[in-house]
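Shipment paperwork, digital attachment
Item: protein structure file
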Amino acid sequence: MEYFKKMKGDAKSPPFVGFTEIFWSWIGAFVGIAAVAFIHYNILTETDLLMIIGSFGASAVLIYGAVRSPLAQPRNFVGGHLISAMIGVASYQFFYSHMWLACAVGVATAIAAMHATKTLHPPGGATALIAVIGSDQIHNLGYFYVIMPVGAGALIMLLVALLINNIPKTRKYPEFWF
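Attachment content:
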């Protein structure tokens, strides 16, 4: 019974955020994703390179919408994506003939590595999974996936977060670097 009682929850829901916070979260997410997507769809269209991956959408929620969260800080954001990308590529390369295993090993190992390196960033799990289940275009990148799209995209989004999140007096980003 004690086990099931834990599922009840006993904390109150967080309060609503004000219009100003919503506005700056929207601006940050718009500019950050727009910058990465613009490069993807307008500059890299004639190449096999990618710039945008789905996990960046979840990262945008954190780095533009939850700027004070430890999970949104630069160490976690950039480190979590890079570590997870490396692990995802390795998982695919070692276990591609058993995709279910590659998926599970990639995500679980990425979580463990992010914990061990103090870089936990939940979208990193998706970054690892994308390396495993992605298209041939993703698979053909091999470990270059860590640099492009993951590293380059994360750095662009981080630059936008630094610029946009510090415009309003009510926001400060980052809370810490290391």
